Amino acid sequence: MYGLGSLDDCTLGINSGMGGVGYAINNKMQVNPKNPASYAAMDSLTFLFDVGMSVETDWVKETLNTKTLRETKTYANFDYAVLQFPMGKHFAASFGIMPFSKVNYSYGKSINFGEYSTYGEGGIHQVYLGVAAKLYKNLYVGVNASYLFGNVTHSTTILPNSAYNVVAMISQSKMHVTDYKFDFGLRYTQNINEKNLITIGAVYSPKKKMLGKRYNDLYQLETSGETSLTVESDTVSLKSCYEMAETYGAGLGYKWDDRLIIGVDFTYQPWSKVNYLPLWKTEFTEDALKGNFNDRYRISLGAEYRNAVYSTKYVDRMRFRAGAYYEKSYIKLNGNDLREVGASIGLGLPILKDKSLINVSAQYYHRKLSPKATVFENGVLFSVGISFNEFWFFKRKIE
Predict the structure, then answer these.
(1) Which pLDDT score is estimated for 111?
(2) Tens of pLDDT along 351-384?
């Protein structure tokens, strides 16, 4: 219920098995929206298409006084569908849809005069169009232009005891987002020798005001004689009191003989400097808008290995992936920070004469509050994606 929910980092099937790295990964067989400059490094004869989904199970534990409360939830998501294609020898483009954030929670408790419950659902999606160009030798630049859309709804219901003349009171806050953003990328690769190369990458997204509407509605259902419905409504523009933090990303990648890829990423977002009106506040004062978030940063490390590029053994051509990450979330809970650590493993299973891959991964994560660690969350995220690689632009000399 804090902020925009859990943020996504443009993580596709290949990246998820490597701890989410992607700013400086040198892989021509992969669509990589994490750094739009990577599009122009693809093979000029190749068309790429990637689609994926996931299933997530998490276990939440809360320590409340002398009680320990536990809950388990499982849900499935369609994650992304992206494609990439060349526009000449030194230009390429990408188009797709991915999640930007997601919200999914519910809880309740007993109060003096009844029952109290609240839940949140929804999320923000992004449709992007990216273009990239090769400027000089191994120097690439690119940009993603994204359209953000979606609804994030928070609802609170109070059910009084029968002694009261009210059946229910419902308060609902809905954020309707119709926005845009830009992501700029830079990538440079330096060959050390015939088999070894190093890649550096950088990404920047500017800070901006959010666009859309926030709707606040209060419903009261009464039982005095005839049942009636009383509604109070208020609508505000997101632009007046909501901002999105800028993003700084940098990565370093190493590649050996088309068999080993290692990458490390760092992401920083100064959310503490943005205006954001929490859903339970209605006054547009500076105190209400400021200081609602922490600065967010994330460090990721990942690797991919295959035993041989060309081999008659299927297992030699399989790609084995592993990664880990640490993140301090932008969310601030009553003076507590939210911290997360996780690890992942994955496989790339070749199909269609090794031109395409089935990517499977499993990620474990652990979240907790600090310094007052009263709530813990552990989860496992299983992802499956298919990456198609077709030579659509190859002209055969002999039919």
Answers:
(1) 75
(2) 877 778 999 999 999 999 888 877 889 999 999 9
Lowest mean pLDDT among 260-274, 275-289, 315-329: 275-289
Distance CA 184, CA 117 (A): 42
* Amino acid symbol at 370: S
How many folded domains does the chain comprise? Answer: 1
Looking up tokens 């640490």 gives: 326
- 395 in a domain, yes or no? no
Q: What single letter denotes the amino acid at residue 113?
A: F
Beta-carbon-side half-sphere exposure of residue 121 (alpha carbons within 13 Å) = 8
Fill in the DSSP letter of residue 8.
P
User: For 156-191, how does the pLDDT look when each residue is reduced to its tens digit (9 = 90+)?
Assistant: 888 877 666 667 778 888 999 999 999 999 999 999
The one-letter amino acid at 254: Y
* Sequential DSSP letters for 181-196: EEEEEEEEEEE-SSSE
Contacts of 313 (CB under 8 A, 6+ apart): none
Alpha helices in 295-364 (DSSP H): 314-317
Query: How far is residue 99's CA from residue 108's CA, in Å, rounded to a whole number?
Result: 28
CA distance 32 to 379: 25
| CB of 210 closer than 8 Å to CB of 187 | no
Q: How far apart are the two ends of the chain, measured CA to CA in Å? A: 60
For residue 396, being part of any structural domain is answered with: no
In a domain, 87, yes or no: yes
Pull the structure tokens for residue 43.
């093979």
Q: Does any domain span residue 178?
A: yes
Q: What is the CATH number of the domain that holds 187?
A: 2.40.160.60
Are residues 237 and 213 in contact, defined by beta-carbon separation less than 8 angstroms? yes
Provide the b/e sequence for 200-221 (b: ≥16 CB within 10 Å).
ebbbebeebebebebebeebbe
Residue 132's domain comprises 6-390
Joined tokens for residue 295: 């600065």
What CA–CA distance (Å, rounded) separates 233 from 231? 6
**Alpha carbon distances (Å) from 4 to 19, 101, 306:** 22, 6, 38
**Max CA separation in the chain (angstroms):** 87
Check: CB of residue 39 under 8 Å from CB of residue 191: no
